[in-house]
Amino acid sequence: MKFEHVTFDLPHGTFHALQGGDPVGQPALVLHGFPNDPPTAKPFLAELGRRGRHVLAPWLRGYAPSRTAGPFGFASLTSDVLALIDRWSPGRAAELVGHDWGALITYDACVTAR
């Protein structure tokens, strides 16, 4: 499965991501852990795409080519993720999948979005 490199200009900088899968499928945002980045998860991303998901895997703040400047607290990282969801999937709920550090951001995003 092919993934394209996309960018999003968000309030706190430009964020890069891999996007693929079914464009009309359920949006699924996959957040990487430390020290990984989206390309290391391509087999997993491809499987989500084969199962009908529209997948987006961003390079989180601190990981080039996305914004590398801080702050790096959960409030900032969560704000980035929520802004990304609003821009990528406006008005449509997205599934959040997180690994390692990405799982902590996923939890914080779910609590914050309530």
From TrEMBL:
Q: Does the keyword Hydrolase apply?
A: yes
Molecular-function GO terms, alphabetical: hydrolase activity
As recorded in UniProt, coiled-coil segments are none
Q: Which domain of life is it from?
A: Bacteria
The protein's UniProt keywords, in alphabetical order, are: Hydrolase
Annotated AB hydrolase-1 domain residues:
29-105
Q: Which PANTHER family match?
A: EPOXIDE HYDROLASE (PTHR43329)
Protein name as catalogued: Alpha/beta fold hydrolase
Starting at the broadest rank, the lineage of the source organism is: Bacteria, Bacillati, Actinomycetota, Actinomycetes, Kitasatosporales
